[in-house]
Amino acid sequence: MKDSGKKCTETGRYDCIKLENQLCFPLYVCSKEIVRRYKPFLDELELTYTQYIAMMALWEHETMNVRQLGECLYLDSGTLTPVLKTLEGKGYVQRKRCETDERSVIVAVTEAGMELREKAVTIPPRMGACVNITQEDAVELARILKKIIAGVTNGADA
Amino acid sequence: MKDSGKKCTETGRYDCIKLENQLCFPLYVCSKEIVRRYKPFLDELELTYTQYIAMMALWEHETMNVRQLGECLYLDSGTLTPVLKTLEGKGYVQRKRCETDERSVIVAVTEAGMELREKAVTIPPRMGACVNITQEDAVELARILKKIIAGVTNGADA
DNA sequence: ACAAGTTAAATTGTGTACAATTAAATTGCA
DNA sequence: TGCAATTTAATTGTACACAATTTAACTTGT
User: Fold this and answer.
1) Cα–Cα distance measured from residue B53 to residue B103, given in angstroms and rounded to the nearest whole number
2) pTM of this prediction?
3) What number of CA atoms fall less than 13 Å from residue A73's CA on the CB side?
4) Are the beta carbons of A96 and B55 closer than 8 angstroms?
5) CA–CA distance, A72 with B64 (Å, rounded to integer)
6) Which of A36, A53, A118, B52 is the most buried (most CB within 10 A)?
7) Contact B145 A21 (CB under 8 A)
8) How many CB pairs under 8 A join A and B?
């Protein structure tokens, strides 16, 4: 349906670099737009999206060092250090050097951090109501994304 | 294995704010990781990802004002102005005020910008070889993402 | 014609992202 | 043991991304 016969939707030498033919671009846009949709809800907790996912990881694990948190969130210390300092400033986490290995910094959720969780549980259902997607599509999307992430983050070189 | 009556994959009060149950999070990670994968290829052209998608839009349209480009890329002037100034500095685009409406800034691809396109066409096929995804999944993914974007960017309030 | 409202881009300020480097602590091995 | 490699966070520098504000130019209603 789309090559050298020159139909209505014809194929050109530059088709592969058209925005509409990229997969990365809707991925990039979708990610940004969803995060933007979170903003009003996250504003209630005075958290940014990055702070929110960091808290999510910490609510589950209670305590992690920066490296582990980074593996969990796919972020490095260059991003996490300022985020964690901000969260510490807000009183939601505590940072301290590991006693048995002074290189590591242990991040632990505080009492106030655990209380924040109570407010946070209201966010996913409200977000869900905002995003126009069927249950089947959500499952499909999650499956495909996880497959891509697994392939891309391993040494899956060309 | 960890609370009330419950099976193996049991349901807890806080399940909805676990990282693994979010759809936004793999979307965010996938987008970032794919962009990271582009970097070695984009480095050859000395373009960032944002500069690359801006050039993609401009290669197709030759000339656009900042507002149109922003609608196309889902970016505002606060992001685009510095990106376009950088691209102008590299000699790939020219920026000038519209003569009939001095509020608008017209962005036009230069000769050098069009030549860059020749190098850029090699990127998508090489990226495709890097990303571990079947043709069917790619089609599915594109379909779902476009649906979400359409729903989220319109006033699809809860 | 003109004040009021609107639109367009730029600017300002905050917060990521990430590569590259640095500094300190720990490990491994000759 | 002793020191070179490695690991861990933090720092530095560049580049977005976006909300909010500003400035200038245009449009509209009267």
Assistant:
1) 24
2) 0.91
3) 27
4) no
5) 41
6) A53
7) no
8) 191
